[in-house]
Design a protein that fits this description.
Blueprint (H helix, E strand, L loop, with lengths): L5 E7 L7 E7 L9 E10 L2 H9 L1 E2 L2 E2 L4 E2 L3 E9 L11 E4 L2 E3 L4 H4 L8 E3 L12 E5 L3 E3 L6 H20 L6 E5 L3 H12 L4 E6 L2 H9 L4 E4 L6 H12 L5 E4 L4 H10 L5 E4 L11 H6 L3 E4 L7 H9 L9 E6 L3 H10 L4 E5 L8
Parallel strand pairs: 13-14, 13-16, 14-15, 16-17, 17-18, 19-20
Antiparallel strand pairs: 1-2, 1-6, 3-7, 3-11, 3-20, 4-5, 7-8, 8-12, 9-10
Helix pairs in contact: 3-4, 3-9, 6-7
The structure holds nicotinamide-adenine-dinucleotide.
Nicotinamide-adenine-dinucleotide binds next to helix 4, strand 14 and helix 7.
């Protein structure tokens, strides 16, 4: 076992671009508290939000003020357990759910702990886990079956967003579904919608390469948005392709035009899920949604998804492996972030165990 704790830390710069530096530094290995486990980290995916903290130093009101370890899509191996931990033992491979509630408030009590005040890895001021060793609440570490790889375990984080969105959309047998945006979140929404029984899924994007990936993952139809195309025109194309209006739209871009498309396209009595997070203020054809009883629902991260995700992966109901397009050793974190920022590929994985860089 290696004995250093190389960690990827964002340091705030002043008035420069990118707004933060990624510094690789050796951090102390923490002893696990009585409800915690110490983990040797294996695979950590980079998310768009990690890149935003690096490039802009903030997402909305969350600002990188103090040095912060980055990374939250992660899986690793248990090295040591706190004295109260009974469900895990050293050697267990686990997926790490990065967010947990800090209080037993009303949301936590009714099961919607994503709406509570939470600790969340790599959301300032909370540290993430892109390092060799990391301690986490054991109750939010989920043992992986032998047939689920570490990388699949790390991908449970974005997959969870798709599961939560499709659960909130109540996607079911026979539904036609529109997914706006073929980034990692749109793609996992596609996979989950299909596995929940959607008959036909159409997915839109601005880029052909992303739509090719969507097609290879099982999208029935893809549609490339052309410059100058209006949201009404896009909705019309979607309806033509499906032969009907979609009962559900899962919006995964945050772009005003795509949200407008979602309203125009969704069948009366259907549901539009807002997963994408864009500008604070957006113009939408609200009366169109109101008079056709198109429900508009928010999605914030997820809750209670990890056990279901592990079952789905283990049973082969979803295949997230093709999402990983690039791999880098932990030492090359900055290179990996540059690839992610350039928009090449879909999911970039960092490999934290110098003795095991396998998927
Ligand atoms: P991404 O940037 O990789 O993908 C977004 C895709 O949308 C891109 O491929 C882009 O080309 C495409 N796009 C942009 N404008 C479009 C338009 N008008 N029509 C169709 N496609 C368009 O991002 P991602 O990692 O896939 O995340 C998607 C969104 O989900 C982001 O806004 C992110 O902040 C948000 N997100 C929300 C939650 C949540 O809890 N609600 C969680 C994770 C991510």
């Amino acid at each position: 076992m290696c004995d250093n704790n190389l960690s990827a830390v964002l340091y705030k710069k002043r008035e420069e671009y990118p707004q933060c530096d990624i510094v690789m530094e050796n951090r102390p290995i923490n002893e696990p508290g009585e409800d915690d486990v110490l983990l040797q980290m294996h695979s950590v995916g980079i998310c768009g939000s990690d890149v935003s903290y690096w490039v802009k130093g903030r997402i909305g009101d969350f600002v990188v003020k103090d040095p912060m370890i980055i990374g939250h899509e992660a899986a690793g191996r248990v090295v040591k357990c706190g004295k109260n931990v009974k469900h895990l033992k050293p050697g267990d491979r686990v997926a790490i759910e990065p967010g947990y509630p800090l209080r037993q408030d009303e949301f936590s009590k009714n099961g919607r702990y994503n709406l509570s005040k939470v600790f969340f890895c790599a959301t300032p001021p909370d540290h993430g886990n892109l390092q060799r060793f990391y301690t986490h609440k054991a109750d939010y570490c989920f043992k992986l079956p032998d047939n689920v790889s570490y990388e699949e375990g790390a991908l449970i984080e974005p997959l969870s967003v798709g599961i939560h969105a499709c659960r909130r959309a109540q996607v079911t047998l026979g539904h036609n579904v529109l997914v706006c945006g073929a980034g990692p979140i749109g793609l996992v929404s596609l996979l989950v919608a299909k596995s929940m029984g959607a008959s036909k899924v159409v997915i839109t994007d601005l880029f052909e390469s992303r739509l090719e990936m969507a097609k290879s993952l099982g999208a029935d139809f893809v549609h490339k948005i052309e410059k100058g195309q209006t949201p009404e025109e896009t909705a019309k194309k979607v309806i033509e392709m499906l032969g009907d209006m979609p009962e559900r739209t899962i919006e995964c871009t945050g772009a005003e035009a795509a949200i407008q498309t979602g309203i125009y396209a969704t069948k009366s009595g259907g549901c539009l899920l807002l997963v994408g997070l864009g500008p604070e203020m957006i113009n939408v054809p609200l009366v169109n949604a109101a008079v056709r009883e198109v429900d508009i629902r928010g999605v914030f991260r997820y809750c209670n998804t990890y056990p279901a995700a592990i079952q789905m992966l283990s049973a082969g109901k979803v295949n997230v492996k093709p999402l990983v397009t690039h791999r880098f050793p932990l030492e090359e974190t900055e290179e990996a972030f540059k690839v992610m920022r350039s928009g090449q590929g879909i999911k970039v994985m960092l490999k934290c165990d110098p003795n095991d860089q396998n998927p």
